[in-house]
Give the backbone structure.
Amino acid sequence: MKKYVIIGNGVAAAACIEGIRSADSEGEIMVVSREKHPVYCRPLISYYLQGKTDTERMLYRSPDFYERNACRVLYGRSAAKIDPEARAVTLDDGAVLPYDSVCVAAGSSPFVPPMEGLDGVKEKYSFMTLDDTLELEKALTETSRVLIVGAGLIGLKCAEGILERVGSVTVCDLADRVLSSVLDADCAAIMQRWLEDKGVSFLLADSVERFKGGKAEMKSGASVDFDVLVLAVGVRPNTALVKDAGGNVNRGIVVSERMETSIPDVYAAGDCAEGDDVTTGQKRVLAILPNAYMQGRTAGVNMAGGSEVFDKGMPMNSIGFFGLHAMTAGSYDGEVYEEKTDGSLKRLFTKDGFLKGFMLIGCDERAGIYTSLIRDKVPLASIDFDRMKRGATTAAFSSEIRRKKFGGVV
Amino acid sequence: MKRVYVNEKWCLACHLCEYNCAFANSGMTDMALALKGKPIYPRIHVEGDERISYAVSCRHCTDPMCVKSCIAGALSKDGEVIRIDKNKCVGCFTCVLVCPYGALAPNEGGVMQKCELCLQNSCGEPACVKGCPNGAIVYEERGAAE
């Protein structure tokens, strides 16, 4: 009977369990879970604060998930070391778990840059985990003035989640625009205006010089009085276990399309892994939930002796605030097709006869058809792209392709 | 498993399937009361132009991107039917971003809905098929298209 160890208990880990069980119903699965919760939907923590879900509905799988899949979960434990020679994982309490194969699905950790006076700030929170969220919730009152450092996906979702239940929300970022990792200046401006209309204040292209007695003094000279501080500057993949074991690590743990690391029988998946980006052909950490699932599942199947590759990874995000949705995918490289109205913007990026990426705000109908053109590398010459660019539609495919898509099991 | 298939040659673009779908999923017994004068949110939609048209609904993929991508664990495979738990969905639109058929769209409340083959509603079989006046939508067992 094979022994599997999964380090981490997020979505990549759950997918790994499902992957293993699709190929091996017998083997012993041990899950090492730093957080004391069964797998939950991490991206829903802001929706929790907004009252759109609760801790029960946030569970990623049904309550009998581990039992049904015959897994043992070690809650509150973390892995300290992987020993590839001994084929064993040592935990923080000294326990040793032998393995035939191990998957590192350890996620990422918030990155907090040094800031003067930060130690003196009592009410400061990260916004990565359910426990962070429950702690933050306890600190919030109707009159709280909240300062969020970081206008990325995490910071802005936090802003949306708490806006209705606090006095004020101010977001600052070193970048000169919101969501700078996914949106260009024009798209970011639309989203920023929308958020400002809803009541969020911004201090962009600015950063905290020092914290001093409930006040943040900014580099620009501005100062912000606050009661609660949220740090959402960025995250770093948790790579140390594999790095210390001698494995190949860049920004993330480098994996093949089978999710193998450079160490035999050690796999990695999810936010800590660096796999292939189909739109650039380069390795990249793609810290998004769909990627975590697909990588985790692929790792699991292969750990159990099956054969699966995941070679369709690419950056993509669907992110909405107060009802306005932005969707992005791929890389923003090549010629641009643009459509703009008052509250919407569409940009499609084409290069060498392929769709490479897109940004859509307020015009997301059937956007998955665009995504499929990128993912499947559909030659634009084979479809009616003039029609497709005006609005995503399967009618732009040839009747032959449509017959395959709609005429049988897919 | 039986799935819904369309025949482009027979589709008249009458959009009746959309109305039958919205009615079957309304939980009401009177079609006029359910739909008249209201925006409708069908789980099937007619695509095409004046030359060719056809109705698109969930393909119930064997390897569903939407299920793997759902950030709320709301989409799942129940046997071979892809179902959505509206109680868990938070309306993030990630499924819209990944479905290659454009088969998911929000309902009036902002959470996602999709074709579940009318297996759970009062119709009990796909209402779009039952009501198609020209036999352009069928519900049958097929393999992959050659």
